[in-house]
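Format notes (please read before filing issues)

Several people have asked whether sequences and structure tokens are stored in separate files. They are not. Every record keeps both together, in the order shown below: the sequence lines, then the token lines. Line labels are part of the format and must not be stripped during preprocessing.
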Amino acid sequence: MSPVLILLPGCGAETYEQRLQETAQYFAYVDSRNQALSGSWTSPTITMRVPIEFRQMEDPKVSAVAASADESESPAPEPVPTIDPRQPDYADLVLPGLEGAWRAEVPVDLENEATERPAYLYVLSNQSLLKEKQTEQALNFFNIVNNQIATTFDQFLNPEEFKSEQFPDGKGYSNPKSFTVGTFEPETPIDGVPYQFQIYLTESGNRQVVILLVIPKNIARGSKLQEQMGYSLETVEFVKSSSSQAPSKSANF
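Then the structure lines:
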């Protein structure tokens, strides 16, 4: 028997073992991600899976204007949207282009006690601006959101400190998604606790999306929210547009 034939079974066994290990790692990854995330959520702009701890806030209800006495001669009443309950109630902040909002209670380590405080997740997009053909504002959406946050807390937010990141950031089993990531920390506590705004910006064509995570700074080390958020960002996909869009202009922010 030739030496080559003697080596082949060993090489084949080693390759088989590597494939088994790779398969086991893949299914472990899928299992970890499934345990970390809720089911798929879709907006007019993106689909994604959010961290499983979050519970979605209800969309604003729409009520009709009271009809006049002579309905036969009057046009149909226009629907009147109520106040959007998804908007922040902990600050005088109105988030533009709000498509989805979630809330969770997370463990927080305070000086003398361990307690829970709310965390929030928001998805914002320039979809409505594009639909209304307000192209200039739509392409400036990232700046609009950042300025809104900074103005609310009367504090400078420096977009030049934002960094490009990918999720997954290492070896993964899905195509990495690119984001421009920044952090904003209000000097004013919220409900007596320091908070942090984690800002994730992503775009496709002219469409721009901001994913905003608002969490207590002193979130307990045992919380898996940051790990879950990484998994969540891996799942972000833009919904296919029904109409072709012009190539995007680089956003200056």
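For reference, the curators noted about this record: The first strand starts at residue 37 and ends at 42. Confidence is low (pLDDT under 50) at residues 1-8, 244-252.
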